[in-house]
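User: I'm putting together a small comparison set for a docking exercise, and I want a reference complex before I start. The sequence is below, and the ligand is calcium ion. Could you produce the 3D structure with the ligand included, as structure tokens?
Assistant: Of course. I'll restate your input first, then give the structure tokens for the complex.
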Amino acid sequence: MFTLCFLAAFNHWETTVSKQVHDVPVVGHDEPECNSSNNLFFSDVIERRIGRRALISGGVGLAVSTMIANSALAHDSHHHWTRRGRRDVSPGFTPVPHSSADTVIVPKGYSVQVIIPEGTPLTKTAAPYIPGDYNTGADRELQAGAHHDGMEYFPMFHGPAGNNHGLLCVNFENINLELIHPNGFTIESNGNRPVEDEVRKEIASHGVGVVEVAKYRGEWQVIKGRYNRRFTGNSPMEICGPVCGSDFVKTKYSPNGTLTRGTLNNCGSGRTPWGTYITNEENWAGYFFNTGVRPREQTRYGVPTAARSTYGWGTRAEDQYARFNTTPIANDASGDYRNETNGQGWAVEINPFEPNSIPKKRTALGRFAHEGAAFAPAKPGRPITVYMGDDSRGEYIYKYVSNKKYVPGKADGKLLDDGKLYVARFNADGTGVWILLEHGVNGLTTANGFTSQADVLVNTRTAADYVQATRMDRPEWTTVDEKTGYVYCTLTNNSNRGVAANQPVDAANPRAKNPDGHIIRWRETGDYHEATEFEWDVFVFGGPTLATVQALGSSDSVYQGNEQYAAQVFPGTDERAYLADTATFNSPDGLWAAPTGILWIQTDGYSNVTRGFANQQMLAADPETGDIRRFLTGPIGSELTGLTSTPDGKTLFVNIQHPEGASVWPNINGETRARSATLIITKDDGGIVGT
Ligand code: FEO
Ligand code: CA
Ligand code: CA
């Protein structure tokens, strides 16, 4: 969601308002910047970066770093796009143009079906959706939630049948108040929420759905099977790993600190090597408030100080809502919800095939605004590795490495409770290091204010500040290309970069104001994902065409001083210096290196006709050649986010999140209330999607 700054909106709140929820960005995607650390490492960035490029081009290659002399990273300018793995397919479709239409457009030869729009009943006892969304909060607890985001498809059968029948796990990230309350909603001037069902419906519209889907006579449909479930912002969840049982998570609900309620702002997805789902809690801080003195595990994450700054759920007296007010009121933590925010900010494991299982918050993976969780391909006898972005301006990229080794058939979620959490530092010479966030190591000691590993994990951002990791331009999704070993991460944009004294440009985040974002990538030393050193470069910069930037000239100050940068990183004729109009995009977000070999890029940015941008889109990239083509454009006001496919790559599931404003998409049976939904995309000739 592309949102505006935070406080301005609240002047407009009145009792019984029904207004554009994007003026209520507290729990949107642009979490307030909370990183006041001063981790600055780079000066004369451009020279050094060019120096590295020149070094590579000159064939000296890895002389910059003897540590990787034996790695598979060696490449020179001629082989820059030649990787040792062979790909199956390349993007082969004719790109679609930018679009401002209120519809989904895909290339010629492709078809789209819409499934699971907001409100779809998911279980046998669920109430039917009432067009216009006149359903109650209780109804919504068994229906599809709002703001479809990350998702994964789990086949229910081995072999070809698995391509036609599976479980789809879908995140429901957020809500549009005016859309889920067609009769308006009530937020009083002090933030109070006098109508319980409004709050209940809002909380129920968040969370995760497990949905059985099957293809029958060419059409996919929802099966109300035994695995279907809804997890909401109120569902019981287990706290696992080093934080479990610590003082940080003791509450009135769970005095021994083992349980919490709800998962919130579920953003990108992940799938474990053992076949379970990972949902990631992103901008959870804004759902809470604390009118007292906030501890650092709240300030560093931007927990608001006033009820007015949230949906105000915590203003209600009932326990399941009052917990969103984390102001201490009792003698100790077992009598109130001062620790309630510490139950959020985690990667959460859900086993879709165990319908009675309770979701598990895997605290060893750190607490931040989790965008997604990308698992490196698991290798027998080696640890598992998970890559994760923290999406806020100036936050970090993390990875988790299990202490125990992966054993096929035996591995399970316990591998996520015992391991090492690292944060990335990107050096200006194109190398990088993973810095361990472990109590007693790297200065994370009691003397320096970290009392235990639970403390380090609850305060992951503070620990990363302490070890001087690299502040990035809003790390969104990560993905691992299993063919090449490359890991990619979208850095969506950062309007603060290089502005005033805050976050000067650095090698890995080289554009001031960074309006359009970029995609960074790295390879671990020796291609061992558990390695602690890596080599990185920029895969592509978002932005307009060169002709557009030149035509804008001084009329568009945001590009002043930036316009040469991409050309310096991508010298010569590399199209990624400036994208062709068939590939221009801004604000890359969703990202998936599919097993087919196509790197899918989804955007969550802005529309600006002068800069050549219209509705949000999805593009297919060939990581070998750098070819990028626009594959899909979405409806008005929506972002593209979340994608997965059947194992054969012939059915692609893609989410349309928050069509809004003038949008009436998907306009089912003439309904004009816009609804987030899942797209099912197939190639008419039955081939792999994207070819
Ligand atoms: Fe939920 Fe950073 O996107
Ligand atoms: Ca996102
Ligand atoms: Ca985003």
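Residues 1-30, 39-86 have pLDDT under 50 and may be disordered. The longest strand covers residues 207-216.
User: Thanks, that's exactly what I needed.
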